[in-house]
Structure formats: structure tokens, C-alpha cells
Specification:
alpha+beta; paralog of FGE (formylglycine-generating enzyme); five-stranded antiparallel β-sheet
């Protein structure tokens, strides 16, 4: 079953409907003086719209009848309207607006139906390709390819259990270009995170490790249902080794560049979070690794690094607190160091702690 959009003229205005290839109309949108407004389609109008859909079905070979490949929330405000783009396989974009809850409903429709292509595979959406950047269609969240390689994890100084320095060899993986935002969180979890500083493009915070891993599980399930999951991979939190490797981006010092240019921390944050990707990225294109909010990692926290040489480490088999990495808006320069290690209980929720999504071998 696939999701389609049909475009047609109604009362002199452009109009379009979203419907399943089984014929059930899901919702309709129509243009008024303020632009296109999207809403649930009242049942009394289904017959009228179905006529238009049948008419559009005669136009399969042109732009009036299209399989939807992507639905992107472009801009959202919890107390206002949300702008939504419907992206077709050939790149055509239809833009609409609706309230935030219905926007998330539309994204849910896409995840559930749009990539379940017919047997011939026509119109199927893409999937992650090794070594290439990948954008999660339903979240408009870009993940960057992190190459396989080795690095020295930890540091001699710092007093934060970042020793002994350990030689780490890592397989390739993907990591979110930015921290997960409040809009992205809400589109998966169907609620608004209790962030101290509200803003759709600000990082989500006040989420526990358990909640963050549930977000990852849901994204994996949604992408698997849409047939976009590469075999053996899952959306997950990064291990702390993956996190530090990506944070360093080939550097060996305390920071991956000029701290003030790259991070929101106590000296320059104004005691608040900021929209993601408003500071300078590191050499691998990753934003806010040194600041804005701290980021949950997959591992249990150990009192020291393993030392020697290890491959794809995942931390201790058990523990009481989970690792989080990176500086944050309320923390000082020491917390911003690439090698700084911290931990919190899996159920803890604080305004300084969020997370970043990884795509890596299944835990």
C-alpha cells in the first residue's frame, strides 16, 4: 500500500488530496487567501473528492498524480501553524500548512504507507548508502557518514576518568549532523518535550536515557516498516567511543577548533540553549558537539577507559549510570573538552541533557 497525492482545481483554487492506493482518502488540502491549508477530510465530501481522484487517475503520466516520497516539517511553532512540504520522487514540492498535531499525523502517514511500494518497486524511496549522507525523510534529520578509522581516546589530564589513553579502532557509521530538535522529538514521540527553552529548532532536553533510546527504537521501527533500513543496522545512541571520534574529527587537542566559534557554553550562551547549527561545525560537518546540550551515549559509565587497543568498544556490560558527552549551555570549558566523560542515571532528566541520533550496527 502506498501514499499518493493528486492535484486538481476546485472552485477556481488549487487543491490536492492524500490517499492510499486502495482508494481511501486520508485528508485534503485547499488553497485560500492565506495559502494552502491542510485538514482532515469530512466524510460527506469523500464522494466528491473520490470523483476528482478518479479523474486524476487518468493523468498518471503527468504531475497531477504523484506518489509521495517525503513529508517534511519545515517550520513549526507549538502555538501556531506548521509549514509542511510534500516531496515527490521527481523532486516536485507541494507546500501546505496546518496545526502542529496534524503535521505530525501527516508524517505518521508517510512513515506507515509511503515506501510500501508495489511489487514492481515503482516509486519506492531511497535508503542509506554506505559513505553517503542520509536524511531521515519523516524528520528532515540529516546523518553524516563517519568513516572507519582509529584514534586515541581519552587524555592524560582532566580528572574526568578519561584515562588511560586507549587506541580505538572503529567501523564506519552515521551520526546526526545536529542534536535532535524539539520538532523532531515531537514528530516521533507525539508530545512536546519539557525543554527549559521552547523552540522547534532548539535541541530537545529534559529527556532521560530511557526516553532517548525509545525514540531510537521507534525511528528504527518506522524506517523498517518503510523498507529503508539497511540489514544489520539500527538507529541508536552513539557509543561514547563513536561520539568522541566524531567530536574530534581528526584532531588531538582538547577541542576540535576554536571553542567560542563552535560551542554554546556558560561564557557565551546567555544561560539558555540556542537553535542547532548556529555555531561553526567541526571538520566532519557536525554541529554543537562541544556545547548547547550534553548528549546521551549508549554505554554504561566505567571509572576508567580500558587502555591498550580495542575495536568497536561498547563499554561495560552493566552499571548504574549511563554516559553522556559534550559541553552544554550551563557548563564551563572543562565540560566542553572532546575527552570529557560524564554520567547520569538512565531515568534522569535535566535541562542540560539531550541526544544525537546514530545509525550503526544493531546493539
Amino acid at each position: 500500500m502506498s501514499l499518493f497525492a493528486s492535484l486538481y482545481s476546485k472552485n477556481g483554487h488549487a487543491s490536492f488530496d492524500l490517499w492510499l492506493d486502495g482508494g481511501q482518502t486520508m485528508c485534503a488540502a485547499f488553497e485560500d487567501g492565506d495559502g494552502i491549508t491542510i485538514g482532515l477530510l469530512p466524510k460527506p465530501l469523500w464522494n466528491e473528492v473520490k470523483w476528482n481522484l478518479d479523474k486524476a487517475a487518468l493523468l498518471r503520466d503527468n504531475s497531477y498524480f504523484m506518489r509521495v516520497c517525503d513529508v517534511r516539517i519545515v517550520k513549526s511553532d507549538c502555538f501556531a501553524m506548521t509549514v509542511v512540504d510534500f516531496v515527490m520522487p521527481e523532486g516536485k514540492i507541494v507546500r501546505g500548512k496546518t496545526d502542529p498535531n496534524f503535521a505530525r499525523f501527516l508524517v505518521g502517514i508517510l512513515v506507515k504507507y509511503s515506501a510500501l511500494a508495489n511489487a514492481d518497486g515503482a516509486g519506492a524511496c531511497a535508503a542509506p548508502v554506505q559513505g553517503q549522507a542520509w536524511t531521515l525523510p519523516a524528520l528532515n534529520l540529516q546523518l553524516l557518514p563517519i568513516p572507519a578509522g582509529s584514534f586515541e581516546m581519552g587524555s592524560i589530564g582532566g580528572g574526568d576518568a578519561g584515562h588511560p589513553v586507549t587506541q580505538v579502532l572503529l567501523s564506519a557509521f552515521w551520526l546526526g549532523r545536529t542534536e535532535v530538535t524539539q520538532d523532531q522529538w515531537a514528530s516521533v514521540m507525539s508530545d512536546v518535550a519539557l525543554a527549559n527553552f521552547i523552540g522547534g529548532d532548539r535541541p530537545v532536553a529534559n529527556v532521560s536515557w530511557k526516553q532517548a533510546t525509545e525514540f531510537c527504537r521507534r525511528v528504527t521501527a518506522q524506517e523498517a516498516e518503510a523498507r529503508r533500513m539497511p540489514a544489520g543496522l539500527a538507529y541508536t545512541l552513539p557509543t561514547e567511543a563513536q561520539w568522541e571520534y566524531a567530536c574530534r574529527a581528526g584532531t588531538t587537542g582538547d577541542y576540535a577548533g576554536d571553542l567560542d566559534a563552535m560551542a554554546w557554553y556558560d561564557k557565551n550562551s546567555g544561560n539558555m540553549t540556542h537553535p542547532v547549527a548556529t555555531k561553526q561545525a567541526n571538520a566532519w560537518g557536525l554541529y554543537d558537539m562541544h556545547g548547547n546540550v550534553g548528549e546521551w551515549c549508549r554505554d554504561w559509565l566505567s571509572d576508567k577507559l580500558p587502555g591498550g587497543s580495542v575495536t568497536d568498544p561498547t563499554g561495560p556490560a552493566s552499571g548504574t549510570v549511563r554516559v553522556f558527552r559534550g559541553g552544554y549551555w550551563l557548563g564551563g570549558v572543562a565540560h566542553c573538552r572532546s575527552a570529557h566523560r560524564s554520567g547520569a542515571y538512565p531515568s534522569d532528566r535535566t535541562g542540560t541533557l539531550g541526544f544525537r541520533l546514530a545509525l550503526a550496527p544493531s546493539p
